[in-house]
Write a structure and sequence with these properties.
- The protein folds into two domains: 43 residues, no CATH class; 32 residues, no CATH class.
- It contains two helices and no strands.
């Protein structure tokens, strides 16, 4: 039930046109994503403490967005 869209360009100071045009990002595809989700291929295990520390800044960014009443991709 999610809509996946190409990432926009990063602006004037960007070192590349867009994430979707990066040769490294081009290695990803919707078919590869589907395969990974269905089979668990390429699964990475992260220490729970590291995962918790990684979630904090993401939660802060999402909270900031909510406080600013900005529209996020999931709200579109």
């Amino acid at each position: 039930g999610k809509r996946l869209i190409e990432a926009p360009t990063a602006g004037k100071s960007a070192t590349c046109r867009s994430c979707a045009h990066c040769p490294w990002m081009a290695m990803n595809s919707l078919q590869a994503l589907l395969h990974a989700l269905e089979t668990g291929a390429g699964e990475i295990h992260v220490d729970p403490a590291v995962g918790e520390r990684a979630r904090r800044p993401i939660a802060r960014m999402l909270d900031f967005t909510r406080r600013q009443q900005l529209q996020t991709a999931g709200d579109a």
